[in-house]
Every structure is written in C-alpha cells, then in structure tokens.
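Check the record.
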Amino acid sequence: MTDEVPAISRPPSPRELYFDRSFRMLCRAFAWLTVLAIVLLMFLVCRQAAPAIEHYGLGFIQGRTWDAGKQEFGILPEIWGTLYSSVLGTAIGSLFGIAVAIFLTENFIAPWLQDLLSTIINLLAAIPSVVYGLLGIFVVIPAIRPASSWLHEHVGWIPIFSTPLLSVGMLPAALVLAIMVLPTVTAISRDALASVSPRLREAAFGLGATRWEAIISVILPTASRGIYGSILLGFGRALGETMALAMLVGSTNTITWSVFSPANTLAALLANKFPEAASPMELGVLMYAALVLLALTLLVNILGEVILMRGSAVPARGGAK
C-alpha cells in the first residue's frame, strides 16, 4: 500500500478561470473609466474656456493684469509664481527626501526603526492642506522673518533677497511645499535605492570604497532614473497645490526673483477668484487658467511616469543579458 502524493500543480478549475477573467475585465474597465474621466474633464474645461480662448487668445497667457471691472485678464504672474514656488519647494523637499531615503535604505538604523520612520513620513501625505497652511502662518513665517530682515539689510542687492518678508511670501510657501512633497520623493527614491543589486554594493566595498563613497559613486548613479522620476512626480504634486499656497503666497500679481516677496499661483488664483466670478466671461477666463494648470500638471506627471518606467526597465534588460 502506497500513500498517494498530492499533486503539486493542477490546471485551474472553470470557476477559477471565470473569476480570473472577471477580475481582469473589471480592472480593464476601471482603467478605461479613469481615462474617460480625464477626457471628460478636459472636454468640460475646454468647453467652458472656449469663449475666453477665442476672445483673449495667447495674450491671456502673456498678460500681467487681472481686473474684472475692466475685463482685462492675464496669468503670466500666476504662471511664474506657480513654477517658481514649485521649483523652490521641490528642490528643498528633494534634498531632504533623497537624504531620508538613503538613511532608510543603507542600514544606518535598525530595521524596525526604518519601518517606523517610513510610516511617519508617509503619514505626512494624509495631513490636510489647510493644516499645512496654518503651520506656515503660525510657525514658518515667524521663524524666518528675522533672517529675512537681516538678509535684506546686509545682502539686499542680491535679487532673491531684495525685499523683506512682511507677512506672507514665496519662501514660506516653498518651505511648506517642501514638506508636502517629502513623502512622494522619499517613498519613490527609497524603492529605487532598495532595488539596486546588493552585488554592486559588495563590489564597491571589495574595491576598498567606504560606505559614503559606495553610496555617492555607485548606488545613487544606479538609482538615478528612479530618483529623477520621484523629483518630477513631486514637482507635479507641488504644481497643483491649492489651499496652503492660497494662504501663504500672498495673492499678488507680481513677477520677482525675491523669495520674500508675495506672489500668486494658478491654483491660488482659482481658489480665490471662483467665488467672486460674476460674469460668464470671468468664469471662462478662470477655466482657461484651469486648463493651463491642468496641462502643466499632466505634462510633468506623464514625464515623471515615463522616467520611472524606463528606470525600472533598465535593470530587467541588464539582468537578461
């Protein structure tokens, strides 16, 4: 009498095939619904903005005046403020985010502490935007105001310090944006660094490299595509931020290099002007501004996703060889 050995593998049953096929169809349907929602959103925004696009044309993008009484509208200062604040915030947040990612992946601390810090950083993404705005008003602005006064007094001839920080301005908004993009940059950079083959680390150590030499010369260049993608996705996150910037940036139509000067952004413009829109034309120009912001955000996020996809494909091709 011999014991029957259970089969290690078996063909899927008709019920399993049915559920598998249904699940794939459901995922495909939701994916197409997402695409449809984006297309529908673009269509509705373009339809609302069509009269303003026809009336103002590209002059709307180049104009610097927003006067609803005179029907003069331009968003060049808002485009400048959106890009300037996003670049500053993403640059600061990326420096800290990449540093934190290195700290969490290169065994500087115990694994349980790595998981704890990673969870805490990820929870920053769940904090409401208005709370970040309050943080900027009551903590960030009072903290940097003395430094802004000193810099304006001693090195005010440098354009970025040409004005003192009075209440709100570009730098407080950028610092808050840095905190808001930190989870995005940290999470994706951490995955990129963790995907680097341990053999590269061992080879660097075998050649006599120190830990920091291995990190700077080997690990960071190998994970560079994923890190670049995380920075671009963080930049896209910063472009669309609304409430925190509406509370901190100042809502002033100015174009200046000074980080202490008030400014305005497209998202803040939409948040502040939509409740006051009293005419169809004003509503149309606001939708025109929303279309510009949507185009910028989609372009940056698509570029970031493409870089991430190419970065994840390179090791697979190298491994195959």
